[in-house]
Amino acid sequence: MWDWLCDAPHRYREEDKAILRSTFGYAQNDRLTISMNTFDELKRNLEQVEATIEGACRRANRSRGEITLIAVTKMHPAAAIAAAAELGITHIGENKVQEFDTKQAEWNTLRDAHKLRAHLIGHLQSNKAARAAALFDAVDSVDSLRLAERLETAAAANGRMLPVLVEIKLSDEETKSGLAPGSAAFEELFERLPQLSHLNVRGLMTVPPYLRDAEAVRPYFRRLSELRDESARRHPKLQLDALSMGMTHDYAVAIEEGATEVRLGTALFGARDYSRA
Fold it and tell me: Could you tell me if residue 11 is inside a domain?
């Protein structure tokens, strides 16, 4: 976990200073302070991430504009979101409804000031669907018909169209969520999705196995891309344009295999302190 407050000042928008002040209760001569090393590190990390994205796009003959960078701020304070927003990152990913709920006071101000969008990228229990539909701009981890129907009901009650991704499980890992391609649950969900008029089904998401060699993950990304194309042909009423795949250690390979969204936490903010989880 980064030490977000230190002695070296960094200039923030007034809205962001108010967020950091309310979060940490610290201001000095109307200048909220943050570690310059921390902010500079985030800036350097972002520059490296952008260089990696651009390199992968060149190798795949793709445009940088095809890729959405989602900064994953789970287990980081609202100050991390404020710093990322200052650097132009507009898509934020969170894993848990409960954690993001605690950041709402700060988030609402940041969202309005920077036109941010929040993605739920972690597993969502169906009994939390209503709250998730109220908090998030998109739910990127739909893994059952029951959850999709709960989100449809919540979105309809809120009078909104909710963007969603279907989470696919491409490995045998018991700890991973998602639908197995071709399973009865997979087929049932895709047959029903066109009838859920308050869900905007944008595409697929996966979390592949963690393999030290990023090249070893390539087949999983390729399979998701193929599955997206197959599903789009079989279900022409769905606009399956998005592929959310690739994290800190393998996002370059994911982009080469067609990712339109990459989810990066450690690459931007550094390692999390799981002892506080």
Answer: no
